[in-house]
Every structure is written in C-alpha cells, then in structure tokens.
Design brief:
alpha+beta, Sulfite Oxidase, Chain A, domain 2, five-stranded mixed β-sheet, 7 helices, globular, binds the ligand Nc1nc2c(c(=O)[nH]1)N[C@H]1C(S)=C(S)[C@@H](COP(=O)(O)O)O[C@H]1N2, binds molybdenum atom
Length: 252
C-alpha cells in the first residue's frame, strides 16, 4: 500500500508540476525522489530526468519485445568496433578460456567469474532486437546468464543504485540502474543464435540491455562495479555516451 501511495504522489506531482511550472520544476521534484539520471546536469537535463523518471515509475517491469524464431535476421549486422588489442587476440587464440569478469564495488562478495562459472549460475535466452541510434536494427537469439543471477551471488549493498560496466576497449564503458540490472531480460551474453557469441558481436562476453538502444549493450565486458553514485566515473555522467550528445538513459 505504501508504495502505491508514494507512486501516486510522485506521478500526480510530476504531471501537475509539469503543467504548471514546466519541465524544470518537475525534474527538480523527480530528483528529490531519487529519480534523476546521472547526466541530468547537462543542457538536456530536465528533459532527460522526466523521461527517465517516467520510465521508472510507469515501466520498471515492462518487457522488451520478444520475437518468434522465424524473425531472426539472416544477416545480422555487427557494428564496426575500434580495433581490439594483442592481448585480446591472444585470449581469442585459446578460445577465451582465461577470460574473467570481475564483479566488485558495493557488494558483500566481490568475485571473479570465468565464462564457465557464469554458465553454472543460470541460463536465459531471448529473441530480441538490437536497435542502433543510427537507425539500423536486427533480431537475434541471445543466450547468456541473467545479470540478476550474478548480482545474487555477489550481494549488492542496500545503497547500491547502479551497475557500471567496462569493456576491454577501455574508452568504452556505461552503466544502468539496479532496476535495469536486475530486470529479467538484462543478460550477460555468451552465445548467439546457434553458437558461441562471435567476436564481431561482442564475444566472448557482452551485456544485453534489450529495453534500451544498442549502445547500452556493451561488448567485451570484463568488469562490473556496483556503486551508489556514478559521479566518480569518468566525467560523472554515467557513461561515455552523454559526452557525445547521447543520453545515459536510452529506453526504447
Ligand atoms: N565494446 C563495444 N561495445 C559496443 C560498441 C562498440 O563500438 N564497442 N558499439 C555499440 C553500439 S553503438 C551498438 S548499436 C551495438 C551494436 O551491436 P552489434 O555490433 O552486435 O550489432 O553495440 C554497442 N556496443
Ligand atoms: Mo549504435
């Protein structure tokens, strides 16, 4: 009952304030309820805050669209990625058997997982679409371990708000809030369609965040850090994307 009351208070408050005093005041109210995205300080800040706050209030449990097997794209398009390092290619040569995912930060049990470890924690599969902000998209079956299952292992602290994730392409990193991180469709993906995840599509390990645009689905993941604030990461905007004019929250 309590949450319904609070939710009603926030939503009616947001709607009323947006009408009367404009988006800025509504964004201020959203912030007070802890519903401000990390990039809320920029020029699009108030708009970003409202979009994100509304998604969290109305759509926290919404599911990304899943497709029938017949809709899997015959020629999925792998985005061009910056070149991978010699170290990466050495790991590739031995079938990525030494690849590790470190999960640390505000957790009771920081852990380094091999891909074999992840496979023992759980398996989910989804036929969902990757939608690039540039306008192309494709549908594939993604198979992996739900991020929620990994978080259950490491036990985030109660004050955890974000899961930050890092690619071996060090200039690329991002984050999602804990609601997204524990959403059943958010996945650490190690297989695609009929086989292992190809390197072009992020193998050996990528994150799939199917409720958001493709740029949130980072490839070549080797670290996840649970945190209460994104201020200490990079320029403090939650990911690299806002530095290039793309919003941190990229809900579809
Ligand atoms: N490490 C890494 N991850 C990345 C990218 C990248 O260049 N490097 N591109 C992103 C973008 S913009 C999109 S649209 C998707 C595309 O996924 P795909 O290459 O599997 O089609 O990956 C995202 N993840
Ligand atoms: Mo993209």
């Amino acid at each position: 009952m309590k949450t319904i009351t609070r939710r009603r208070l926030i939503t009616t408050g947001l709607a009323a304030t947006a009408g009367i005093a404009g988006v800025t005041e509504a964004a201020r109210l959203a912030k007070r309820y802890g519903l401000a995205p990390p990039d809320c300080g920029g020029i699009y800040g108030p708009g970003e805050t409202l979009t994100y706050a509304a998604s969290r209030i109305f759509g926290a449990h919404a599911m990304a669209r899943e497709f029938p097997r017949s809709m899997i794209s015959e020629k999925p398009f792998a985005n061009e990625t910056p070149p991978l390092s010699d170290d990466f290619h050495q790991q590739q040569a031995v079938g990525f058997k030494d690849w590790t995912l470190t999960v640390d930060g505000l957790v009771s049990h920081p852990t380094k997982f091999s891909i074999a470890d992840l496979k023992t924690l759980g398996r989910s599969s989804q036929i969902t679409e990757v939608s690039c902000e540039e306008g192309w998209s494709y549908v594939a079956e993604w198979i992996g371990t739900p991020l929620a299952a990994v978080l259950r292992e490491v036990q985030p602290a109660p004050q955890a708000r974000f899961a930050a994730y890092f690619s071996v392409q060090r200039e690329l990193w991002g984050s999602i809030d804990i609601a997204e991180a524990t959403h059943p469709q958010t996945q650490l993906t190690w297989a695609m369609n009929d086989g292992d995840l190809p390197v072009g599509f992020g193998g050996p390990l990528r994150i799939r965040v199917p409720r958001q645009l493709g740029y949130k689905s980072l490839k070549y993941i080797d670290r996840i850090t649970v945190t209460d604030s994104m201020k200490r990461f990079g320029k403090g905007l939650g990911s690299v994307d806002p530095e290039y004019g793309y919003s941190w929250y990229a809900g579809i």
